[in-house]
Amino acid sequence: MPSVTDAVSAASKVAPHAAVQQAMHAAASTATQAVSAASQTAPQPAADAVSSASHAAVSAGGPFAAVYYFIMVPMVYLAILALLVGVVWRVVVIMRSPLQPYPLTLYPAARWRAFAAFRDAFGMRQVREHNPFFWIFLIIFHISFLLLILAHMDIIPALRMLPAASKHMLGAGSVGVALTMSIMYFILRRFSSPVREISTPGDYLLLLLLLFLFLLGDMMSWANSWGAHGFVMTKKDFALYFDGLARFTFTDPRAFLHGSHYHFVVLHVLLANVFFIVLPFTKIVHTFFTIPINLLRRR
Questions:
Q1: Within a domain: residue 13?
Q2: In a domain, 177, yes or no
Q3: Which range marks the domain in which residue 83 is found?
Q4: Which residues fall within 8 angstroms of residue 67, CB to CB, at 6 or more apart?
Q5: 90, 136, 214, 268: most buried by Cβ count inside 10 Å?
Q6: 151 vs 224, which has greater pLDDT?
Q7: Structure confidence at residue 129 (pLDDT)
Q8: CA dist., res. 154 & res. 23, Å (int)
Q9: Which of 3-12, 57-66, 68-77, 105-114 has the lowest mean pLDDT?
Q10: Helix-helix angle 132-155:174-189, to 10 degrees
Q11: 3-state secondary structure the chain
């Protein structure tokens, strides 16, 4: 039989070997956990840095930030001023023009002169009798354009017509459909005789300006009304921008209008500014003179 001394000697030889194995296993386990933790946490600062940089770049507007600000704020005021000055100038020119040698009075005389003037201006009886199909699109365009003006006024908090919680513009996108279809018809009509022979390059450019202006507006309106997730910027965001313009705060719109689609908003506002500036020198300026002229004719 082995003695007690032999048993103790054997145990002393096995114990160090088992301790070494346990130490190696513990070290390996600790290293694995350290590597796993490092692999999970190391990319996080980089991801945060990229996210912060992206947000800063979007907020700053890139190298065109100053140009965007000029289009979205100062140019809006300048365009409206140019519109008002241009209309007044056209009125002065017309008032100083020599009288025509022939009368413009309409017969028979209407019993209610003001009502007859409005009927002549908005009913366009002569157009209806000559070209009923064209008259239908003119009526659609004029009504839709009036609703478009009211829809943009509705965005201003002080002039709100729809409930404050509504995400829709007035008409919920249908106004944009009507305007876009009307403009597309007017463009196609310019390529048919006899309209083609009397059309000028300015006629085509004005219609194209309106078409792209409406399409950019449609993109935002249709997305908010019909899209599953809406547009990047909501009606409430645009309300803050309009409110800043109305109160002359000169705040950078990037404080309210976030997202990469800001470029489309800037382009939409730019085309609107151009339209305001050129309007007094186009055929659309008749909007300001139709009723006064019809009142004179009904005098």
A1: no
A2: yes
A3: 70-91+104-297
A4: none
A5: 214
A6: 151
A7: 82
A8: 75
A9: 3-12
A10: 140
A11: CCCHHHHHHHHHHHHHHHHHHHHHHHHHHHHHHHHHHHHHHCHHHHHHHHHHHHHHHHHHCHHHHHHHHHHHCHHHHHHHHHHHHHHHHHHHHHHHCCCCCCCCCCCCCCCCHHHHHHHHHHHCHHHHHHCHHHHHHHHHHHHHHHHHHHHHHHHCHHHCCCCCCCCCCCCCCHHHHHHHHHHHHHHHHCCCCCHHHHCCHHHHHHHHHHHHHHHHHHHHHHHHHHCCCCCCCCHHHHHHHHHHHHCCCCCCHHHCCCCCCHHHHHHHHHHHHHHHHHHHHCHHHHHHCHHHHHHHHCC
Q: How many residues are given for the chain?
A: 299
Radius of gyration of the chain from its Cα atoms, rounded to whole angstroms: 35
Q: How many domains does the chain have?
A: 1
Q: What is the pLDDT of residues 81-135, one digit of tens each?
A: 999 999 889 888 877 777 666 666 666 666 776 677 677 767 777 788 888 899 9
The CATH number of whichever domain residue 114 belongs to comes to 1.20.950.20
**Token pair in block for residue 122:** 């908005």
Within a domain: 134: yes
- The backbone torsions φ and ψ at residue 274, rounded to the nearest 5 degrees and listed phi first, read -60, -40
Is position 64 within any domain? no
